[in-house]
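With this grant's support, we have settled on a layout for protein records. An illustrative entry appears below exactly as we store it:
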Amino acid sequence: MTDRMERIRRISRLLYLLCIVIAVVLAALAATCVIMGSMPGLSLFDDIREYAGGTTETTVAAYFGAADMALMAVLMGTAAAVFREISESHTPFVGRNSDRIMLMGHVVMFMAIAMPIAKAVASSLTSIDYHLDVGRILMMVIIAVMAYCVALIFDYGAQLQKESDETL
């Protein structure tokens, strides 16, 4: 049991570091999307602006890109917190991990439902051509439901761990 838990801790530390790096990269990309989308004089995006038909469409697309990247950064940051908790505690089954995994499910569900609606509304108000990707939405809903299931399992595990600790 000790060897297995040590292996889990080691893997969790590696995953924690990986999630932190990815979260920082995603946050930087989100900031870049906002900066590039809101500065009409940047030559890097002039070709994209010209193709999109104007600065409004490019700015809207950049802000949606920033929102997607920011939400993914939140997911990775939350996953990092879960992995850090697992690597530092004697058990992965703590209430905070259950809450964090539930938060991840909420974020994915938001990305699956609210973001496409917002993009469709923006598409109707501008000349941006947005196509609803039903497969992506369904996949994200399934991932959110799976996160909810894992959160409930972690919550149950935390209750069992608490009972076990109290009997000792």
